[in-house]
Amino acid sequence: MDNKYDAVIVGGGVLGTFHAYHALEMGLKVCLVEKDAYAKGATTQNFGQVVPSGMNTKWQKFGRESLEIYKEIQSRFDVSIRQNGTVYIASNEEEEQLLVELRAINSGNDYGSRMLTKQECLEHYPGLSKDYAVAGLFFPQEVTVEPRTMIHRLQEFLVAQKGLEIIFDFPVIACEQEGEWVSVCNTKNEKVFGKKVIICNGADFKNLYPETFASSDLEVSKLQMMQTKPQGNYQLNGSILTGWSIRRYEAFHECPSFAQIKARESKDSLQKKWGVHILFKQALDGSIILGDSHQYADANRIEDLGYELDMDIDNFMIAEAKRIFDLPTYQIQKRWYGMYSQSKNSDIFQKTIDENIHIVTGIGGKGMTGSAGFAKMNVATIFNTQKINL
């Protein structure tokens, strides 16, 4: 019975780990298997912003649920959550109009926000250019996380306090129904068994179900980011999202003026070509994380995105960032890119194999914000809220 579980979760990123969390909350016996020695995929290579305000109405509900889950865990175990809010800074009247409309939508959804005048933006965010800022919209309840820390601390919490079993260095090569159990086999022919198996390993599920993968609509996005050297005594609170974020994030698509404003945009800009929107977030060491860009390829053509950083993109982002914030230093200490899978035609990719094997992937850029809330609903659906007796 030692290697038999109510649920086996494949993939140790944020989506898989929160599926494990909610299965444990239901009282189930859970095993999480991860192919590497530790989680190091998209979950650790992102900005670490939890911003339900940027999501459409459906996913904002999951994001707000995630906020509560993060805060509850943080009250018991330090997983690097900081409630320091999110601000959107408009650079012109069109973007300000979108902020006003978003605030009205969120007021109707009972999700608190506050408009900031230009002067308030300049006072709250030192170094912000007076020539850039027109107005702001602040969401005080939103949080930031340290992505390279959070997932490891969350897993440590689940092992120590919830009884999760994690097996690292367990690359899965087969999942097969064997009677009442699903066997999950790795490259060493080691097996664990689950009543249900939930596969949350990004585009890697192609090795398990190549036909399902080939017929999927998954694509991969490559995002370039960078981190400055520590900024001395300079302090920049929360997540700072700027005009191009206002013109990009899904939440604004629901604003009455959005379509008309987007129609007036230049189609040939470098910002459009590289999918850039400028974000700022201060890390715990005082450095500023800056980015990001978005380049896309079909999941089965991931190599088309290349394996190098495009310095033209980085230089473009730095130049744009300097127009917005006068930071003490723009010296860069780290550069990297993250890769995540997403579904072209739906919010997330889901496929059930033989009733008890559930592929759940392609959450895209919604992972850090939406996974905790979405996984709660999905685990309840998969298990019909009933504990399985071994």
TrEMBL record:
Pfam families: DAO. Signal peptide: none annotated. The keyword Flavoprotein applies. Residues 6-377 form the FAD dependent oxidoreductase domain. Keywords: Flavoprotein, Oxidoreductase. InterPro entries: FAD-dep_OxRdtase, FAD-dependent_OxRdtase_HpnW, FAD/NAD-bd_sf. Its cofactor is FAD. Coiled coil: none annotated. The keyword Flavoprotein applies. Belongs to the DadA oxidoreductase family. This is TIGR03364 family FAD-dependent oxidoreductase. It comes from Flagellimonas okinawensis. The lineage of its organism: Bacteria, Pseudomonadati, Bacteroidota, Flavobacteriia, Flavobacteriales.
